[in-house]
Amino acid sequence: MNTSIQNALTQAVEQLKTQNILPQDWQNNSTITRTKDRSHGDFASNIAMVAAKAAGAKPRDLAEKIVAALPQSAEISKVEIAGAGFINFFLNADQRFAVLDQVLAQGDAFGRGDSKAQEKIQVEFVSANPTSSLHVGHGRGAAYGESVASLLEATGATVEREYYVNDAGRQMDILATSTYLRYLELLGQKIVFPVNAYQGDYVKDIAQSVIDQDGDRYVKAVADVYANVPEDVKYSDQLDDKGDKIVLSGDKEKHIDGLIANSQQLLADGYRVFHQAALKAILADIKDDLSEFGVNFNQWFSEASITHKIPEALDKLKENGYIYELDGNIWFKSTAFGDEKDRVVQRRNGQYTYFASDIAYHLDKLQRGFTHLINIWGSDHHGYITRVKAAIQAMGYDPKVLTVLLVQFVSLWRGGEMVQMSSRSGQFVTLRELREEVSNDAARFYYVMRKSEQHIDFDLDLAVSQSKDNAIYYIQYAHARICRMLEKVGSFDANQAKQHQALLDLDIESEILAKLAAYPEVLVRAANAYEPHQIGNYLKELAALFHAWYNENRVINEDNDALTQARLLLSVAVQQVLKNGLTLLGVSAPEKM
Q: Number of C-alpha atoms within 13 angstroms, CB side, residue 162?
């Protein structure tokens, strides 16, 4: 319907240009929006407000001239000027019911479009270190990333979902060494386990798998493993002003690094056995967890596989004049692009930094032909955005090709109290545990019901409640309620019911029709803004309208079959749109509850 109004306004603008009321070069960037109050019409345009300065006229005076220049339209029944110059459009009755035809004809495709049909977009999300099971924070990134990808696909884009596997960094070495120490412990060695190692029982399980396969083949003397390793940290029982433990002596970072170096030297090729056993076990767990959550990736991209591309990426930076050497280190001049300081890409010992790998990874992405890159990161990576964009620009690409979306942390609440979570101690709440407690549907829905950069307080009790306050339950119940009605009537022919649609003359029925017609616009806005919560809010509003209508009006009326048919037709349209929206969010549309 926006199209008809837009066409009418375009013709009016062209006429005003011929009358020299508007400049010939004036570009129309006004908007057409649905009105919140139907007494003000179905749509409103701010064109007179936007064009007033160019026309040298007051907005309301210009609005009168625009309205006078509007061509006759079969779809528009009335036009009014409101306030300082808004132009309100009222649709005729047939147009109000047009959405029913569209929903019935398009079914699952209703609301989808092709506005991004020329775009090839990569969405990289989750990308958690494969050092432990996914926790509830990773779950939010997974739900958000998958929903954003689905929204982009629904607007016509070709989308590739990618998980960047950090399998070549220090954290993997800490996990591999943690596994080796547990291996020695399980085989009878006495170990003082490092503070900074991975503590969870899953590490023992991985170590046991190596024993099951290779026995004691990799046993080395504990004294050799700990030889010349700096002392581990020792803490006081007291806390400092920030609430942290006071360090008495030692260094946990140097201690674990010393154990890593000794383990690598003692085991030689055998070290890779522990590294790969840990990687494969954790990655398999992550893939299984995400798959059960309805999140699947086109590509699991290994960090280790990109090592060969780092020299190529750094050569591009060097050719463009953004690489220099200082104190034996190789630096990227990122300050030339607004970064707070330059960044080391290769240390004096020849080792590349993590950042060098990230530069090469983004070069590889760009060379794969994507028109747009979307990285979904945790909010603690905010400071990383500028340097990555700087590297992209320094290599000769438009930095606007990259959009970084930040996901804030999640707090779990149960019984009015916050659930404590910890990562390396192995006592964190996993995504799998959350899903088992509240269901995939509740997790997927509530994870995306706020803007990604806003913190979430996830109420576990609310998520499992069967009440109006539980939004996902209320939405799904609307869908199931309609299914139950259709099951009760047995057979229903929507096409035949259309002949009775004029009986849908209640104000709330007009509201529902307008809400249904707004769905395609909401979908486009949500996709453009990367905001799946707009779909969630829309579904809440549609479900609330339906429940209010259903509770006040008999849908199945044994004394008036024509009215029953009309109301069932409206219900079927609501059912379809609820299903379409829930599907985009990765949530099921149950037929029974």
A: 21
